[in-house]
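Subject: design request, 166 residues
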């Protein structure tokens, strides 16, 4: 995902699927979990899966924040195994996923953002921007919100207020 504001809250887990298939930890092997199965479930069709936060996922990693340093690595390994058990049980058909936008759309939204913030005296309508940048109005609004975290009008209002405070 392209995050132009430069921050996110979350966790990314990268797994060596070959190693998980050839030498899985005992607990995952006993559950029938291997790299091939996880690849087929999460990567084969779309290449990646991004899901919003949930209480179940937060619970898996919440205990990591108050550990003695000497226990951190061992506990983290256990928590990743717990995450893999959770993901194996997950029903993707009924799981909400985060929208992924092609990088061209994100780049266009960055250009629109730059245009709108470069001259605050000018007022831009969604319709004019969508025609100028050859993007459907619904797509423009949804991608802007996904990239900058709020609708265009709200973002611009907050942007102006932040500048006025300086």
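Subject: RE: design request

Done. Sequence follows.
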């Amino acid at each position: 995902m392209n995050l132009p504001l430069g921050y996110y809250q979350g966790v990314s887990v990268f797994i060596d699927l070959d190693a998980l298939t050839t030498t899985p930890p005992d607990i995952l092997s006993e559950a029938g979990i291997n790299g091939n199965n996880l690849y087929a479930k999460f990567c084969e069709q779309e290449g990646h899966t991004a899901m919003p936060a949930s209480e179940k996922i937060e619970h898996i990693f919440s205990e990591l924040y108050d550990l003695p340093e000497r226990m951190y690595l061992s506990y983290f390994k256990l928590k990743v195994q717990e995450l893999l058990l959770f993901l194996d049980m997950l029903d993707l058909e009924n799981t909400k996923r985060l929208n992924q936008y092609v990088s061209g759309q994100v780049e266009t939204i960055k250009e629109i953002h730059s245009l709108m913030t470069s001259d605050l005296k000018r007022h831009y309508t969604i319709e004019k921007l969508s025609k100028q940048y050859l993007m459907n109005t619904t797509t423009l609004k949804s991608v802007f919100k996904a990239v900058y975290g709020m609708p265009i009008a709200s973002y611009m209002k907050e942007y102006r207020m932040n500048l006025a405070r300086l």
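The first helix runs from residue 17 to 22.
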